[in-house]
């Protein structure tokens, strides 16, 4: 049984790349506050907040009307930015909403409120916030991008496409929108159109990290590993310490057969983040292929310790235990993986293999049955069930399963 594939798509935040939104640093924010004549006490409190030294009494003074000039909307906006960065999205939302109420002509505050609502999972309200921003500023790029992103995250491909197309009608040279539109085409299985959108995004912005990552994922998914590796390397040049990119590059190198190159990437990434689940699992898989089972198990164990519901790490550790004939430990891990991901065809198939190794063909066939029920085109499960039926004395059933496996393999080719 092969380790399960793990690829992740990532969408960068709509305003994080080109400065069209409000991704401001706090030194600049403090300077703006001072320039418009707010009480300097407010400036120092914002400085404290931005450096993690929030003080409730000071914040109360900061918000008090007698400490500020008449137009308080920018102050509430900046407080919202600080709380958003600190991860307190509810308080950030409250401040952005207050800023929007105080300055109903500013598109930034309703957009930011929408972004916080999206983070909080309140996506219908988020769309209202983005629409409010676009009513005030129809070409406001972050809001145009975010509308499509909400639908993309819902896997509502039709409305995501409409939203991105509407944005491109207004901003035809927006590289982010082209890359995002490419993601929708990829989700719909139209790789040619997806690639065309990524290519357009990169022509418009040769430093588009999102487009390099998305195109790399597309190429890797189509087993064009050389092209994927080029794109991931380009992305890594833009963001050298990004463990997500390092992980993808490592997976592509490993999938291409370059385990040594993959190991270099995993080691580099783990120096940045020793607890990165994907890097630990990736390195463990290389160790598993090298038959260094103890090292593989150590990496998979570290991954499970860092994230107890990481079923792929449990699955891969079970593979290593099986290679060592530690069947009780393998079954323990596979049962734990199934508790996290019930009905998972890969896990059921592998547990069937363990039962087959133990010559418990009744249980093995039951698991293969369940795997095929979960994934009717699972050729490998048919092959494994055929082997188990052969050993159980069901020659006719085995022949039927092998014929079906051959038919399914032919369709895939």
Structure, explained:
This protein has 413 residues and is an all-alpha fold. Among the domains are: 22-150, Serine Threonine Protein Phosphatase 5, Tetratricopeptide repeat, CATH 1.25.40; 343-413, Alpha Horseshoe (Serine Threonine Protein Phosphatase 5, Tetratricopeptide repeat), CATH 1.25.40.10. Helices cover 73% and strands 0% of the residues.
Could you give a short description of this structure?
73% of the residues lie in helices and 0% in strands. It is mainly alpha-helical.
Task: List the defining traits of the structure above.
413 residues, Serine Threonine Protein Phosphatase 5, Tetratricopeptide repeat, 23 helices
CATH class of the domain at 22-150: Mainly Alpha
Mean pLDDT over the full residue set: 87
User: What value does the Rg take, in angstroms?
Assistant: 26 Å
Largest sheet composition: none
Strand content: under 5%
Order of helices and strands: HHHHHHHHHHHHHHHHHHHHHHH
CATH superfamily of the domain at 22-150: Tetratricopeptide repeat domain
Shape: elongated
Q: What low-confidence regions span 5 or more consecutive residues with pLDDT below 50?
A: 4-12, 16-45, 49-55, 65-70
Q: Tell me the CATH architecture of the domain at 22-150.
A: Alpha Horseshoe
Proportion in helices: over 70%
The total of helices stands at 23
CATH fold topology of the domain at 22-150: Serine Threonine Protein Phosphatase 5, Tetratricopeptide repeat
